[in-house]
């Protein structure tokens, strides 16, 4: 990986002669390094860039606390400095929401989202998502105490996860009214206890461009299982090919 200290983006895998770029937005509690194996299997002319939130990987010494506005603004500013080329944003779980929000304000030619709720519209009671009761339920699903943001004695990894889940709750509401004009692909695992399969079509509301959905055998982390890994690499490669064709026409 090629990184710059205290910055939000890093080149996960450079390309000798890049003809397209993938921006990776990791899931809650994780960093860009978790996706190295995935991006390593993409075509060699794809430059892969990872987003690193504070509190993990090379930013492990920083507080993990941030906001959607701060994260999106910082990521947008750094991506703007990269040379223009066909670009696809990929996000998993929390990362899918952050990718969507960043794509709304950045140059982007396609989005691939895996294992994420489509904003608050996927919930029976959208208002409950960011309420104290709703947050306690989200923490419980991830084996954290209801007061995880203030609870003493949590490990560094647990603290980072708790702040990321708080950011996820904020992101769910922040993306509700966003609408892109680029192709969007939504993926979900058939056995994911966190993302009901019937919410997958709701991702279509986020774009006026082409939309496709796909259920993949596996659970919430299917991209890191052998079969799901292959499916994701195929989907990312296909989205990048479409981005290149649109970029050339434009």
From TrEMBL:
One Pfam family this sequence matches: Thioesterase
Entry-linked InterPro entries: AB_hydrolase_fold, TEII, Thioesterase
SUPFAM superfamilies referenced in this protein's UniProt entry, alphabetically: alpha/beta-Hydrolases
Gene Ontology BP term (one): lipid biosynthetic process
Lineage top rank: taxon: Bacteria
Thioesterase domain segment(s): 21-224
Similarity comment text for this entry: Belongs to the thioesterase family.
Protein name: Thioesterase
Taxon lineage: Bacteria, Bacillati, Actinomycetota, Actinomycetes, Streptosporangiales
């Amino acid at each position: 990986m090629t990184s710059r200290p205290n910055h939000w983006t890093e080149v996960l895998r450079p390309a000798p002669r890049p003809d397209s770029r993938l921006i990776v937005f990791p899931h809650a509690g994780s960093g860009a390094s978790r996706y190295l194996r995935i991006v390593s299997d993409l075509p060699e002319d794809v430059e892969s860039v990872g987003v690193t939130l504070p509190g993990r990987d090379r930013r492990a010494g920083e507080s993990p606390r941030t906001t959607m506005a701060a994260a999106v603004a910082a990521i947008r500013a750094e991506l703007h400095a990269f040379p223009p080329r066909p670009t696809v944003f990929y996000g998993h779980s929390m990362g899918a929401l952050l990718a969507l929000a960043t794509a709304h304000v950045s140059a982007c030619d396609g989005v691939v989202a895996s294992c994420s709720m489509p904003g608050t519209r996927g919930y029976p009671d959208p208002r409950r998502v960011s309420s104290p009761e709703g947050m306690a339920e989200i923490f419980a699903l991830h084996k954290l105490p209801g007061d995880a943001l203030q609870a003493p004695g949590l490990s560094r990894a647990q603290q980072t996860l708790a702040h990321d889940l708080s950011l996820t709750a904020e992101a769910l509401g922040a993306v509700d009214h966003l609408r892109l004009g680029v192709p969007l692909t939504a993926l979900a695992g058939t056995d994911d206890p966190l993302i009901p399969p019937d919410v997958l079509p709701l991702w279509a509301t986020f774009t006026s461009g082409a939309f496709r959905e796909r259920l993949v055998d596996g659970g919430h982390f299917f991209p890191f299982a052998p079969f799901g890994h292959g499916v994701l690499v195929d989907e990312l490669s296909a989205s990048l090919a479409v981005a290149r064709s649109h970029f050339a026409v434009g």
